[in-house]
Amino acid sequence: MKSCNSVRENATECKVTGQSVCSNQLRIMSLNIQCLKNKYLELEVAANSDHIDCLCVMEHWCRDSELSSINLSQFKLASQYEAKSLIIEKDFEAVAIQLYSLKKKIIVAAIYRSPSGDTEVFLKNSEEMLNIFSNENSTIILCGDFNINLLVQSPVKNKFLDILKCCNMFPHISAPTRTTDSSESLIDNIFSNVDTHEVAVTNVNIGLSDHNALTFNLTATPKEEENKKEYKRFFSTENCNRFKNNLKNAVWSEVLAQTNTNDAYNIFASTFMTYFEMCFPKKLLSYRSSGSKGTWITPGIKKSSETMKLLSLKLKTCHDQQFVVYVRTYKKTYRKVIAKAKLLSNDRLIRQASNKSRMLWKMVKKETGGQTKEQEINLKNNENIPIKKDAMANYVNNYFVNIPLTLSSKFKQQPTVTTPMVNTSMMAMPTDEHEVLKVIKCLKSKMSYGLDDVPVSIIKKIAPCVVKPIVHIANLSLSIGHDLKLFIMSTYFCFLGNKFLYTTYILCFSMILYADFCAFWACKL
Fold it and tell me: Residue 478 domain-assigned?
């Protein structure tokens, strides 16, 4: 069973959700859909309505590039058949995934065999695959379109069932799965080594192809879900008022007495964070994770999906021309409705988002199946020696701060420039509390935060209480000069793992100083 790539249409794919809808159930759907591109929204509604956890699709007729652009909400592509060679193409196409669910190790495999495929090759590969699975001591669930009619006696049918029996696997479907005007056949099925009393199966035409959709529901003894734990701060009105009162009564004389920017800031930050931790302590919360739900699939759409199943079932026996036209019209309208519903849902999410551009790109990635890959950051110093991750932030800071000195050291002779005496001069006047409060007011009031968990909105609320030490630090930075650059640069680089992060309250206060400084020079120029 090889995983390959092909320019031709692939035959089988398997999707699996990250979490089951019910903790004591695993629901699997198998369907020969005969072209997925124009039916994936209907398939999504059907899977959502039946609370499907694992979806196996045969004959999707999609190339690799097309398949990657199809997205089913709540599902991720776990495995797909890709064929490089035509040796076993049509004869045996299979994919498999391994799940850990219901306190069991479960292998779910999907197989497709073309009607013109070589049965000997199919039987040989099926036997080899099942022998491998049997050695894993797992629950095995095998589904697919085998194109071996189990309603008709034949040597191929007997050999196939004998192979399955040797692995203690038996069929769960006994009724026809494909019905046409002239014939009925049982070519799709679900086999497993699970006792029939532990499973429930359905065999229903959902109107997506001339094959029925097969569902397999494996149940287990209900188990108590493990609660997830997470540390969280509560920014309630009461806590915010307490934080504000503490800062209001704080004594900043030690900060105001400092003549060094870094010392003044370190004392200020220490006092600020002490009161912050006191008023907004982290609390350990336990909660149960609830399965995600499709927001755009409304109860009305689910009801229409059930109606489609009933109409498709009735169409098998009723050939009245008016009824046939009615079913076609209903199906066409149904497809338009679900397409419009998803469009309106996406439009609503974009309109309600605070950052519309970010939400738009997030939605594009989701719909096209795109995934953001974290890139490893590697930096080398001048001696071509790799820099350690924990020292990378300081190296970047020092590099930018020392650019003037580095460039000047490369000149063999320092150039001298004679300029005429300027009668007028320009200087930076110290900032004041009014200007700093004006800058803070312009910040966006968001609950986003960095490593220290301090949201921007909290800083806006307590601004009058800390404006005095901020003004002193700003003026101290301007008077010394070089510390201002160090102070602003240090806010943007804090390396953690593979990502550059920043500390929110440092960034906000830096933005305050930087914006105040820029506003001053804009007025002068």
Answer: yes
Identify whether 308 is part of a domain.
yes
The span from the CA of 276 to the CA of 246, in Å, is 9
Q: How many domains does the chain have?
A: 3
290 vs 58: CA distance, rounded Å: 30
Residues 143 and 17 in one domain: yes
Q: What is the pLDDT of residue 169?
A: 92
Decide if 280 is inside a domain.
yes
Residue 197 placed within a domain: yes
267 and 404, same domain (yes or no): yes
Same domain assignment for residues 328 and 441: no
What are residue 141's phi and psi, to 5 degrees? -125, 115
What is the model's pLDDT at position 29? 94
**What is the rounded CA–CA span in Å between residue 249 and residue 333?**
67
Q: What is the pLDDT of residues 506-515, one digit of tens each?
A: 555 665 666 6
Tell me the CA distances in angstroms from 306 to 48, 284, 295, 311, 457, one per residue in order. Answer: 12, 44, 18, 9, 48
Amino acid at 474: A
Q: Residue 263 and residue 251: Cα distance in Å, rounded? A: 16
- The answer on 494 and 466 residing in a single domain is yes
Question: Tokens for 405?
Answer: 């000195």
pLDDT tens string 339-373: 999 889 889 988 888 888 888 888 887 777 665 55
Domain that holds residue 459: 253-287+377-410+428-524
104, β-bridge pairs: 101
Q: What is the pLDDT of residue 178?
A: 92
pLDDT digits (tens, 9 = 90+) for 412-465: 666 666 666 656 655 667 888 888 888 888 878 888 777 778 888 898 899 899
For residue range 3-62, list pLDDT tens digits in order: 332 222 333 444 443 333 345 788 999 999 998 888 989 999 999 888 898 999 998 888
**What one-character-per-residue DSSP string does 378-445 give?**
--B-TTSPBPPHHHHHHHHHHHHHTHHHHHHHT-SS------PPPS----PPPP-HHHHHHHHHHS--
Residue showing tokens 């004041």: 432
Same domain, 121 and 26: yes
**Residue 511, CB half-sphere, CA atoms under 13 Å: how many?**
19
- What's the whole-model pTM score? 0.62
Assess whether 111 and 160 both reside in one domain.
Answer: yes
* H or E element, residue 158: helix 155-166
The CA-based dihedral angle spanning residues 63, 65, 66, 69, taken in that order and rounded to the nearest 10 degrees: 150
Confidence at residue 484, expressed as pLDDT on a 0 to 100 scale: 45
Pairing state between β 54-58 and 12-16: antiparallel
How is residue 310 written in tokens?
A: 């009933």
